User: Fold these one by one.
Assistant:
Number 1:
Amino acid sequence: MNIHRRHVAHTGIVLFVLAGNMLGQQANLGYDDTPMQPNGRWHIHDGKRPQPPLVRPAPMKVSPVPAPADATQLLGDRDDLSAWQMMDGSPATWVMKNGTLETGKGVIRTRAELADFQLHVEFATPSEIKGDGQGRGNSGVFLLGKFEIQVLDSHQNPTYPDGQAAAMYGQYPPLVNASRPPGEWQTYDIVFTAPRFTPAGALDKPAIVTVLHNGVVVHNATPFWGPTAHRKIEPYTRETARGPIALQDHGNPVRYRNLWVRAVKEYDKP
Ligand code: MG
């Protein structure tokens, strides 16, 4: 309403400049020279895609969120990285202190490989704000080492919507932006179903993910178009049927704690 009134009060030239700035700002958030996504609606990392509405999550009542009895603790309160290794198989070099793991050089991954699972993640981007867009608190949770749920400081930090916190990176923005302010602990609760392939190696069913960010649903049984890529679409290959949980090094300090995972099984198969 206020904006409308201001427009009426100003000259056409001011209006033109204003509109130009607004368009310019939108375009700078992302890309318009990338391929169209398979649904034909948006470019990959499209800066003009609508920003997800903001939702303020409820305060964390129990912190960290305790693991159920049948979960495997990947990061616990002991500074134990024995479940992890670097991508080349060498021991994990990221530093864990007082139950908190800080991102280091290179991607780390779990030694174990998984297919269908429930994963709980707690992360915090730095309270001291540095950088903007994709350069502020960027890391990521790579499911099977291939499908990224983005980690980013998305509190008052606009970027292309399919690259903000909790996005299925390069594919879908979160349904809403449920980010907490920088420095605060946040949660992802992820239910993931691995892709299925025919005996000949063709894709039978895509990977499917449900994600709650700080307890708020941001993806609801959404299929991935393929493994995560930057500025392009990658095809499925049979190698994406199983894999580790991996945490991305994007050059920004991000903290993780209390990661646990449970295998999700089929009905009537205890
Ligand atoms: Mg990332």
Note: The domain at 31-263 is CATH 2.60.120.560 (Jelly Rolls).
Number 2:
Amino acid sequence: MPTQSKSLHLPFGEDKNAPWYGKDILSVKQFAREDLEYVFGVAHEMRGMVERVGTFDLLKGKILANLFYEPSTRTSSSFTAAMERLGGSVIPINEVKYSSVSKGESLPDTIRTLECYADVIVLRHPETGSAAIAAKAAKKPVINAGDGVGEHPTQALLDAFTIFEELGVGEIDGMTVTMLGDLKYGRTVHSLARLLSLYNVKINYVSPEILRMPQEVMEEVAAKGIPQAEFSTLQEVLPQTDVLYVTRVQQERFENQKDYEKVKGAYVIDPQVMQAAKQEMIVMHPLPRVGEISPEFDEDPRAAYFRQMEYGLYVRMALLAMVLGKA
Ligand code: NCD
């Protein structure tokens, strides 16, 4: 469910009664199943509009502050593209070292600054909970683009949208989703497992022992009555898998680099491994990949990870339009 609406000054033409108007997007826990249907409906329309006209003026005159304290290619550029395809513009702050952050400015002060100039703020930050701190400081909507090992809600929404678009609406129910790789530090799988627990899915976790899915996430998913099981090898579950969600081992989160060296090449998806999988299934990855999926698999129709990036554009267009009262 959306959190309480922030009181925004209302320029002409915005619908303050729109359900997500002025809301922050901090966690997938804010979304119920009907909210997802709504997001996916809007994203689907955005896709149609981009295919037909490319760019249109839904958010003309609106400004997004894209504030990234951690590296990003897809998330940052897809939010930029989303805003510009909707006729808005972007203040990009990708290198916080060139901003006042390097002078020691606090996150709340940086947020208060940016909201003087922008209508919505997208934030990526290395600390879990930072998006919530930013949202508390801000009167304008804040969208969490990854808070440390915490959550990455817009990625999970685009991941779920990818499953819908690729495998057919309504078919998330009944699916077996296998998450592979770094389930401990990977924020995308933390968000995705929680989000998928809104459906009748079965979730498998395949990881090295030291990178298992956090207990906290598994307990939340279990509370929704979702069957989950943990494995150390992919072979045990690959033949039953409908969605294989591969992740990168998050080197930057390891306290001890020797531990990283031990697990970095633990799983590699290639055409040979995929012989054991169904023909009707998809392989997803939030990207970047650093060896977990061989490029030799890219031409396989089941390789959905490049299409997944494109779905991200439509979902982020939908979310921006929603929080700015235009959807
Ligand atoms: C992910 C992230 O930043 O959490 N990337 C992304 O947003 N597409 C995954 C990763 O970095 O491994």
Note: The pocket of N-carbamoyl-L-aspartate is lined by residues 74-75, 146, 152, 155, 187-188, 248, 250, 286-287 (CB under 6 Å).
